[in-house]
Amino acid sequence: MDAVDLVLRKFDGRPHRQVTGRLLGEDEFGTWLSTPRGTVVTYHYGSRPTGRTRVDAVRLIPADGWWMAMFLAEPDPREVYCDVITPARWTGPAEITVVDLDIDLVRYRKGKRVEIEDEDEFEEHRHELGYPPEIVEGALAGSAELHEALTLDREPFASHYRKWLLAGTS
């Protein structure tokens, strides 16, 4: 399997986070990357520059979506963690770049509870970094789309991701 760098930046171009995954393939939902337990993640914020993933996961990057999803294996209490982003771009033969727009959605295994996180950070950066109207509209629409899909357990969030998670760990 081919290595692919997933690069997250902030709207002003600052690096935010980076992880290298294995390209598993593509389907009608987008590009699937595997990040097995122990994969190195580089952070450009906070007190630690690098960390390692604690559980196996697969990441879905839709071709045109304003979000990307990470599906986590047990025992993580989170089933799905989603970032609201600008649509992904292939910026090299083995590099996908997105702009992280702050809003995150998390679905927990227990009770399938869905939480929206960091809306305050989105509002702060919206003004501080000058998000144009089309970015604000895309982010809010992406967040609403995700919330509905996660709450109603629509694919690829129902069970479709499980085959990719299994492929990413074998």
Brief account:
With 170 residues, this protein is α+β, with helices and mostly antiparallel strands. 23% of the residues lie in helices and 44% in strands. It has helices at 119-128, 133-151, 160-169, and strands spanning 3-9, 15-27, 30-35, 40-43, 50-52, 57-61, 67-72, 78-85, 89-92, 95-108, 114-117.
Overall structural class, as computed from helix and strand content, comes to alpha+beta
CATH-derived topology: FomD barrel-like fold
Unreliable residue stretches: none
Count of distinct strands: 11
Q: What's the end-to-end separation, in Å?
A: 12 Å
Question: Would you tell me the overall average pLDDT?
Answer: 95
Overall helicity: 10-25%
Spatial extent as radius of gyration:
15 Å
Using the 3D structure, state the CATH architecture.
Answer: Beta Barrel
CATH class: Mainly Beta
Pfam families: DUF402
InterPro entries: DUF402 (IPR007295), FomD-like_sf (IPR035930)
Domain DUF402: 12-150
Protein name: DUF402 domain-containing protein
Account of the 3D structure:
- The chain is of the alpha+beta class.
- It has one domain (3-161): FomD barrel-like fold (Beta Barrel).
- The chain is built from 3 helices and 11 strands, in the order βββββββββββααα.
- It has helices at residues 119-128, 133-151, 160-169; strands at 3-9, 15-27, 30-35, 40-43, 50-52, 57-61, 67-72, 78-85, 89-92, 95-108, 114-117.
- It has a 7-stranded mixed β-barrel.
- Strand 10 and strand 11 (114-117) form a beta hairpin.
- 35% of the residues are buried.
- The model has no long low-confidence stretch (mean pLDDT 95).
